[in-house]
């Protein structure tokens, strides 16, 4: 529960600070108009940073203790902090790319849609059209972002800590695998 609360608090705090900071920067310092399309993209850095902070808080123990590495046939070789860093790095890239479709692509499409004559003549269609765009973007964006890295990552034995490297070399392995996590 402590890790959950730390992850939640860190994510909310980082997202709020980044969103408030970007709003202040763009709309006060740089004097963008509040109705500017730039405002539609400001949530992305906040959400991306919240995802990374939450991931680091929730998986801190893995980074400190390491994660299991296994042979290609699934036999446990040992525990590695290096593999944990690789797993968290890959997962954090996925977590940054995951919100991109809905927070970057969807606003571009929605902005283009609201400028069409059809929507200006039929404003009641705009909300359902927005929902359809967001749903379609999410439908294709989620599987894409989750498929960027395989669930089981691979790392060279030479990158491992000495004790795990010795165990892997004793098993005559060149690489070991680790569970990346989500």
Describe what you observe in this structure:
The chain has two domains: 1-58; 66-182, no CATH class. The longest helix is centred in the N-terminal third of the chain and has 28 residues, at 2-29. Strand 1 (67-70) and strand 2 (76-80) form a beta hairpin. The chain is mostly helical and 182 residues long. It is elongated. The protein is 64% helix and 10% strand.
Give a quick summary of the entry.
It is built from eight helices and four strands, in the order αααββααααβαβ. It has helices at residues 2-29, 43-58, 60-65, 81-97, 100-114, 117-121, 126-146, 162-170; strands at residues 67-70, 76-80, 152-156, 175-179.
Radius of gyration: 22 Å
Between the first and last Cα atoms, what is the distance in angstroms? 19 Å
Tell me the strand percentage band: 5-15%
| Overall SS class | mainly alpha
Widest sheet, order of strands: 1-2
